[in-house]
Amino acid sequence: MDLLDWIKLTVLLVTLVSLFIGGILSVFVLSKFVPKFHLEVEPLILRGSNHLLLKLSMENISSVYPQKKHIRLQVLPYEERMNMRLSEWVPFSKNNIRSGEEPSEWLEATEVFSSTTGLYGGEKLSVQYLVPIPPRAKFLHVGFKYAANLSGIKLWLSGLFSSDEQWTTTLVVPVEEEIES
What we know:
The chain is an alpha+beta fold. Helices cover about 20% and strands about 35% of the residues.
């Protein structure tokens, strides 16, 4: 190998290393533009009342501002049954109820945070929401969902980094005593 071949080989190696480092840096930089949310639901059963107080919190833990499509709260009552099992899945539509997980009564999801248009990066919102507990309910299956309205490049980046257009958290709340109607 002469000097010219060594120079070509060095240029090729420097180019490959530069492309590799640039690829890693671009993934790191582009991942900063993927929306990420943290949702929380904290329940409090009000003694002597037939209501459940829910503290709903959501935080944008990314640095982007995705606009809201909708934010919904779903509370479904269940009576105690033999061999009853509830999964993490809370249906927000009657068509999405899983077999064996039919609620004792279907209640439509409620729009919450209706005046919110979106959350800025690092912003956290909380609200307390009062929910009536239906008579004979032994468990309440609670779902809290934020659906973003992603556009163009944000939607492409979300798919690239395995994010989604919606974030959901769920909770099963036992109702300890029968509520008189």
